[in-house]
Design brief:
- The chain is built from 10 helices and 15 strands.
- The two termini are 30 Å apart.
- It has a 5-stranded antiparallel beta sheet.
- With 356 residues, the chain is of the alpha+beta class.
Amino acid sequence: MFGDHFEGGGEDLLALRQPLGVRAVAADGAHSTVRSLLRAAFPGQPGTLTITAADVRLSGVDPSTSHTWAEDGHWAALFPLGTDPQGRPLRRLVLGGPGRSLPREVPVTEDEIREGLRTVFGTRVHLLELRYARRITNASRQVEQYRHGRVFLAGDAAHVHLPLGAQGMNTGMQDALNLGWKLGAAVHGWAPENLLDTYHTERHAAGAAVLRNVRAQSLLMDWAGTRDPDVLAAREIFTDMARLPDVQSYLADLMSGMAFRYPMPGTETHPLVGRPAPDLELVPARLHELLRSGHGILLDPADTFAKVAGPWSDRVDRVGQGAATEPMLVRPDGYVCWAGANALEPALAHWFGDRR
């Protein structure tokens, strides 16, 4: 695993493009050295503006305050960050609007934060402490391939976008969950052919969906504070729609990544396949607790598939009576890869390799 710091020659890294041997995961961030050494294509939209993000302590702020726009286009967003060691509330403050897009290398000062607060909130909100600040851009990029031979790109090394709703964190975690069990299968020698290739197939599409919704949010938020009447009209309509329970549910699933459906065999015949499994109350534990084994889980409520699943018992745990659900096969990353009553054996072989 390559983390935030990587020291190594490009020739050594490029050798990992070959299909056999040691595998490596590059998770070294938006300015990934590994991605550069691989010369991996990283297309998308360059940053056209910056906004200011700071971790702060404030006084005079209503705890329920989130996004606030001033009439002149300046805006502020506040997100809770828990408390400091003394138990005092911390918040992530984001500022934007006309004239606030400065080069990333320009330091963020306390005076700039105070002026931004005064512009949006007047004199009722004050800066008590500035703990950390940086400028972030609206760049939106994604690598063309998540796999380069024996090197896999994950997290911000594979995709960058405005950090809205912790989607970058959620997407990176899902990258790791998706790739981790597949690498484990390869290391232990039972990975089916092309299993590692499904990492790109599944996560590239998921990452592209995140970039689309972030760009849409950025447009509606009017980060630059243009006060464009068309944008304001669209935002007002969207705000009204977002009050509807069904829309709120959809947006929650979209922002968390739970709305995305992986392309895989069976999606055309069963609505659960390709989606995160419901966190069912099972015997002896909830589904997410059973997945801690790192194995797949076969839910077999009528004890119908014990003989069929037996040859994969070292990789798939079967849960019989007590599973109040229809039969389904859940991968170690929590996604349903088979459901129904037919063709279980081909699904086991497709995801969990040859019979033992």
